[in-house]
Specification:
Low-confidence stretches: none
Oligomer: single chain
Structural class: alpha/beta
Strand content: 5-15%
Mean pLDDT: 93
Radius of gyration: 18 Å
Length: 208
C-alpha cells in the first residue's frame, strides 16, 4: 500500500528540450546568485539593482526574496532552526529549477546557517551556485533597521532573531564578497556592477 509520504514509485520524465537549448534561446547561462547576510545588510537592495541591470542588458533573471516567499511557498514555516532549514531547502529546489530553465536566479535570503547554504550549493551541478556575501557589520545593519526588527529583538519581543540571539554563520569561501570600503557602503549600482562583472568574466551572460 502506498502513501503520500512514499515517493519510491516515481520516475524522472525527460524533456526533449534541454537546458542547453534554453540557454541558447536566451543567450545566457542559467545559474543561482545566492545573496546572504544579516537583516539590513542590503540583500534586497542588491537583488533589485542587479535584476534591473541584467534586464537593461537583455538578460532574463528572477528574484526569489525570502520575505516574499513566506507569503506563499513557505507561509507554513516559522523561524525555528528546523523551519529555517526547510525554508532554505525549498528555496534551493526552486532556484535549481530556475537555473535549469536558463534564468539567472537571484535568491535573496538571510540564510544564516552554513550547512543549509552548502546543501543548496550541492543541488547545483557545474559550479552554477554563486554565493554573494553581504558582509556588513551588525552595528550598521541595526542602525538601518528599516523594518524595525532589531528594535523588537532587543526588547525581547522577537525571539531567535539572527545576529541578536540566533547566530549568523558567514561563508567560508564565497564567490563574491561585498563590504564597506573605508567605512562607506558602495551605491546599489556599484554593488550590482561588481556582481555583473563576475558574471561576465565567468561567461554567464552569453551562451557559446
Amino acid at each position: 500500500m502506498s502513501t503520500l509520504s512514499n515517493s519510491t514509485n516515481i520516475f524522472w520524465q525527460e524533456s526533449p528540450v534541454g537546458k542547453l537549448d534554453r540557454q541558447k534561446l536566451l543567450n545566457q547561462k542559467g545559474c543561482v546568485l545566492w545573496i546572504t547576510g544579516l537583516s539590513g545588510s542590503g540583500k534586497s537592495t542588491l537583488a533589485c539593482s542587479l535584476s534591473k541591470e541584467l534586464h537593461s542588458r537583455g538578460k532574463l533573471s528572477y528574484i526569489l526574496d525570502g520575505d516574499n516567499l513566506r507569503h506563499g511557498l513557505n507561509k507554513n514555516l516559522g523561524f525555528k532552526p528546523e523551519d529555517r532549514t526547510e525554508n532554505i531547502r525549498r528555496v534551493g529546489e526552486v532556484a535549481k529549477l530556475f537555473a535549469d530553465a536558463g534564468l539567472i536566479c537571484i535568491a535573496s535570503l538571510i540564510s544564516p546557517y552554513r550547512k543549509d547554504r552548502d546543501a543548496c550549493r550541492a543541488m547545483l551541478p557545474d559550479a552554477n551556485f554563486i554565493e554573494v556575501f553581504m558582509n556588513m557589520p551588525l552595528e550598521l545593519c541595526e542602525a538601518r533597521d528599516t523594518k524595525g526588527l532589531y528594535k523588537l529583538a532587543r526588547s525581547g519581543k522577537i525571539k531567535g532573531f539572527t545576529g541578536i540571539d540566533d547566530p549568523y554563520e558567514p561563508p567560508l569561501s564565497c564567490e563574491i564578497e561585498i563590504q564597506q570600503k573605508d567605512g562607506v557602503c558602495a551605491a546599489p549600482g556599484a554593488m550590482a556592477g561588481q556582481v555583473v562583472s563576475y558574471l561576465e568574466e565567468k561567461g554567464y551572460l552569453q551562451c557559446q
